[in-house]
Every structure is written in structure tokens, then in C-alpha cells.
């Protein structure tokens, strides 16, 4: 078990493979206001509720999905809960994470630059082999777009990341984000570890 990500029952070891059930710690990163909480709410509860904050402190929401071959994946989704400012705490936050979702807002170039900062952080301090997905959220606001999908996709390719644009408001690509991005990478991780 070389990566250390796939063993043990506790949260330190984030992905547990027991026959057909996988448990994955997934961390959300990105500027405040890009829609992280709304993405989680949409995925877990099927709702869009801009007024509700999902998490406080070190708690998380979880959601289990079933794959075609009857494997189930339980995501333990950690939201920063508005603590984006405390960069020094970040390594504690993403320790043990097998997957990460780095979110920006397609109408905010600053948030895209901030996303690149988080990618570098994860490359430096995250688990080796951590699966990273770059997510351009608020894709329903096309008329206010300032980050082109082409630029983001090119950046993601260069950094070995999956890229997708989502809308927590309309639900576009939210399930696809959790099914495709993380799982492709995690499947590779499992095969490498086996
Ligand atoms: P967080 O700070 O990254 O967790 O961001 P929130 O989830 O709290 O969302 C910040 C604001 O963006 C809220 O006012 C949401 O209504 C809005 N928002 C989130 N996702 C979307 C989206 O996909 N489309 C649009 N138009 N607004 C969104």
C-alpha cells in the first residue's frame, strides 16, 4: 500500500477499499463566493439554496454513489466553511484527502488565479497522487464570463487535472463532476495500489 491513501478505518486514511465499498475524503478549495457550498448542497441534497452554509469547523457532509459494477463510493466532502483566509491551516485540512475539487467562478478571473494558487499548494503539500479536479462554476452566467473554457482546460491539461464547468444553480454537470473526475483518478489509484 504505497500511497497510504487506501488503508485503515479512520479519517487519516481517507479511502478505504473493502471489496466493493470505497470511502473517499474529498476537499473543496477555492475563493470565498465561488459556490463551493452550493455545489455540495446540490450534489448531496439536490437543492440550490444560496442562503445556507453547509459546514462549520471540521464537519463534513457525505454522499454515497453507486457505480455500474456495483461498487459504491462514499464521499466525505470537506468544505472550507469560509476559512479560505487561514492558508496556514490548509495542510491539516487536506491531509489524508484522496481527491480535491478546486473551484473558481467563470465570471471572476481573480478566482481563477486563486484556483491556480491552490493547485500549487496541493502539488507541494497534498498527498502524492491526489486526484485534482478543476471546476469552473456559475456556468449559467455566460454573459458575464471572464475566464474562457479553453484557457482553463489548457491549464488543467498541463497540470494533469480533470476539468469541468458546472452550475450549482441549474445542476448542470454536478453529478458528472463527482462521477467522472474523481472516480477516473481514484480507479487508477486503486489499481496502482493493488
Ligand atoms: P462558497 O463561499 O464558495 O461556499 O460560495 P457559496 O456556495 O456560498 O455561493 C456564493 C454565492 O454564489 C451565493 O450567493 C450563491 O447563490 C451563488 N452561486 C453559487 N453557485 C452558483 C451558480 O452555479 N450559479 C449562480 N448564478 N450563482 C451561484
TrEMBL record:
A GO biological process held by the record: intracellular protein transport
Keyword rRNA-binding applies? no
Keyword Nucleotide-binding on entry:
yes
What's in the keyword line of the UniProt record?
Nucleotide-binding
Task: Name one molecular function that GO assigns to this entry.
Answer: GTP binding
Cellular component annotations (GO), alphabetically ordered? cytoplasmic side of endosome membrane; early endosome; endocytic vesicle; endomembrane system; endosome
Per the record, the domain of life is Eukaryota
- What name goes with this protein? Uncharacterized protein
> What's the source species for this entry?
Amborella trichopoda
From the broadest rank down, the organism's phylogenetic lineage runs: Eukaryota, Viridiplantae, Streptophyta, Embryophyta, Tracheophyta
The residues of the intact protein that this chain contains are 10 to 203 of 252
Amino acid at each position: 500500500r504505497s500511497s497510504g491513501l487506501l488503508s485503515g478505518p479512520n479519517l487519516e486514511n481517507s479511502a478505504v477499499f473493502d471489496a466493493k465499498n470505497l470511502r473517499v475524503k474529498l476537499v473543496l478549495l477555492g475563493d470565498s463566493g465561488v459556490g463551493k457550498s452550493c455545489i455540495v448542497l446540490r450534489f448531496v441534497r439536490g437543492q440550490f439554496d444560496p442562503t445556507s452554509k453547509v459546514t462549520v469547523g471540521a464537519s463534513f457532509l457525505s454522499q454515497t454513489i453507486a457505480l455500474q459494477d456495483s461498487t459504491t463510493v462514499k464521499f466525505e466532502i470537506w468544505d472550507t466553511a469560509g476559512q479560505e483566509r487561514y492558508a496556514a491551516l490548509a495542510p491539516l485540512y487536506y491531509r489524508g484527502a484522496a481527491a480535491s475539487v478546486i473551484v473558481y467562478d467563470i465570471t471572476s478571473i481573480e478566482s481563477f488565479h486563486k484556483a491556480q494558487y491552490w493547485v500549487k499548494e496541493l502539488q507541494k503539500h497534498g498527498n502524492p497522487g491526489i486526484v485534482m479536479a478543476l471546476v469552473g462554476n456559475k456556468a449559467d452566467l455566460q454573459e458575464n464570463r471572464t475566464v474562457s473554457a479553453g484557457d482553463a482546460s489548457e491549464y488543467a491539461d498541463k497540470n494533469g487535472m480533470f476539468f469541468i464547468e458546472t452550475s450549482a444553480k441549474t445542476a448542470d454537470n454536478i453529478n458528472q463532476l463527482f462521477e467522472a473526475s474523481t472516480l477516473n483518478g481514484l480507479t487508477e489509484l486503486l489499481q496502482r495500489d493493488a
